[in-house]
Amino acid sequence: MVGDIVRYSDGTEAKIISGAGVAGLVWDRPMAIVGSELDNGDRIIGPIHNDSTITQFADEPPIEGLLDPAYMPKLYEDGQHG
């Protein structure tokens, strides 16, 4: 999840700062995915799972917030995402 901490084998830590955008929200936070950026400049490169995928087609509008560190989900009055 965006905001979670990654711990490296040497004990150092980094925060996940980008994720799935509106394509994958859990508890108002975007899911971390392969390609998510960390605050130290690294990116998540695995493990790769084939259980689910997010596909961005070139001829469709971009997925709001996909791998965008500045993305913050919008909540509407009823508490739902739009």
Question: What is shown here, in short?
Answer:
It is built from no helices and 4 strands.
Topology, please?
Layout: E1 5-7, E2 13-15, E3 25-26, E4 29-30
Antiparallel strand pairs: 1-2, 3-4
Query: Structural class of the helix and strand makeup?
Result: mainly beta
| Spatial shape | globular
Total of DSSP H or I helical runs spanning 4+ residues: 0
Low-confidence spans: pLDDT under 50, at least 5 residues? none
Helix-strand pattern, N to C? Answer: EEEE
**Helix percentage range:** under 10%
Overall description:
- The protein has 82 residues and is mainly beta.
- It has a domain at 1-52.
- It is built from no helices and 4 strands.
- It has strands spanning 5-7, 13-15, 25-26, 29-30.
- Strands 1-2 form a two-stranded antiparallel ribbon. A two-stranded antiparallel ribbon has the order 3-4.
- A hairpin with a 5-residue loop joins strand 1 (5-7) and strand 2 (13-15).
- It is globular and about 40 Å long.
- The two termini are 19 Å apart.
- The mean pLDDT is 90.
